[in-house]
Write a structure and sequence with these properties.
The chain is of the alpha/beta class and about 230 residues long. It has a single domain, classed as NAD(P)-binding Rossmann-like Domain (Rossmann fold). The protein is about 40% helix and about 20% strand. The chain has 6 helices and 7 strands; from the N terminus they run E-H-E-H-E-H-E-H-E-H-E-H-E. The chain has a 7-stranded parallel β-sheet, sandwiched between helices. Strand 1, helix 1 and strand 2 form a beta-alpha-beta unit.
């Protein structure tokens, strides 16, 4: 059995790969352009037989279908799926939100994870852990201002997808949305207080501890629960 992680060319996804490999796990990783994902290529060389990298454009249904076909051929049972791939549009101000940014954000951040889950549902090793990297910015209850609407709205939609999936796959998976904290990545920026290593270490510990009672919850990286 293996762990599948999407969006692994940099940031949290790449750190998930590093830490899972360090734990001796077999990992299937996706990147939009594997040939340009030099660190993933290096890790694959250092861990022969433990890391496979496939192309995936999570916002494209045909790419999801082909990726799922490759995964099914390689690995009949998935123990964990970490849906990490995501996009955030640049600075958005009210009156300047673009339809193309909204469409891209919803396709990548919300629709893609749902479609990929459907495509892989029959290859989950019950009880599989399905982890969807969300954000407190997608929490309607926690929203306190106008900020990155395309990202925030798409993450709120992802949260609803997680709740839906938690019912659809209740007999074979524990599905959770997870906020990684404000992390110092290309997306999070240099002002973020958390290192990717710290965030991922905490998330993996929480993922390891998931039980059926966690199914359908929105969790912080440190284990707390967030308002929808």
């Amino acid at each position: 059995m293996a762990t599948l992680i999407t969006g692994c060319n940099r940031g949290l996804g790449l750190e998930f790969v590093r830490q899972c490999l360090a734990r001796g796990e077999r990992v299937i990783a996706s990147a939009r352009h594997p040939a340009r994902a030099h660190e993933l290529t290096r890790l694959a060389g250092e861990h022969p037989g433990h890391l496979q990298v496939f192309p995936l454009e999570i916002g494209d249904a045909r790419s999801i279908t082909e990726f799922a076909r490759e995964v099914r051929l390689l690995e009949p049972r998935l123990e964990r799926v970490i849906h990490n791939a995501g996009v955030m549009a640049g600075r958005e101000s009210f009156g300047q939100v673009r339809s193309e940014d909204l469409a891209r954000s919803f396709a990548v951040n919300a629709s893609g994870p749902l479609l990929l889950t459907q495509a892989l549902a029959d290859h989950l090793a019950a009880p599989a852990r399905l982890v969807y990297i969300s954000s407190v910015l997608g929490s309607i209850g926690a929203r306190d201002g106008f900020y990155t609407p395309s990202y925030s709205m798409s993450k709120a939609a992802l949260n609803m997808a997680v709740r839906q999936i938690s019912f659809a796959l209740a007999d074979r998976a524990i599905s959770v949305a997870m906020h990684p904290g404000w992390v110092r990545t290309d997306m999070g920026g240099e002002q973020a207080p958390l290192q990717a290593t710290t965030s991922v270490r905490a998330m993996l510990a929480r993922i390891d501890a998931l039980s059926p009672s966690d199914n359908g919850r929105f969790l912080a990286h440190d284990g707390g629960e967030l308002p929808w």
